[in-house]
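Each field is listed here:
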Amino acid sequence: MAQEGEFKNNVNKEGGEELPLQPALKLFGKWSYEGVTVRDPGLRAYINLRPVYLPHTFGRHAKRKFGKVDVPIVERLVNRLLAPGREKGTKKIGMMGGKKFHALSIVKQAFEIIEKRTNENPIQVFVRALENVAPREETVEIRQGGIVRRYAVDISPQRRLDLALKFIVAGARRRAWNSPLSLAECLAEEIILAARNSMDSYAIRKKVEIERIAEASR
């Protein structure tokens, strides 16, 4: 009898006949989704942990409103790496626009480093990092009679997740700039520090800054 989590159901519901046992999908064929949990109730419905071997949905959700909820969370990290960014002086931010499989390779290497350094499932470490980085409130500017005022507002779960992914990738790129370390190593370091809620993480510092400004604007 197959152990729970190792094999898919082998019963054909239409004909009732048994099919050959199929191994459960693992990310890149290495890491299982079994046991990965989301503790933050606000993010639970938005972090897609549907098991996939290769996190690449070919943009089939691109034209659907709120379609990114159905995109696997690891693919959303990959897509964030693809953002072309901007040119700031001589510093070009984000040079992987369109290089999806190169970005997939970087994430795979980063997860291998995370597993080696933490002895944990890198998917769980990544989810924990997202929970720690996602800010809960920010400020908006409202113009009243020529005067611009800042007001603190709660952040929707979808935007919380968007900002968390943005800050983690931005932190990895900052570490990799003028550094002998590869982007994969810097991404792994940023995720590990964020999962530990360490102030050495750029993403954690950015979250604290946003919430501090919002608190002052109440």
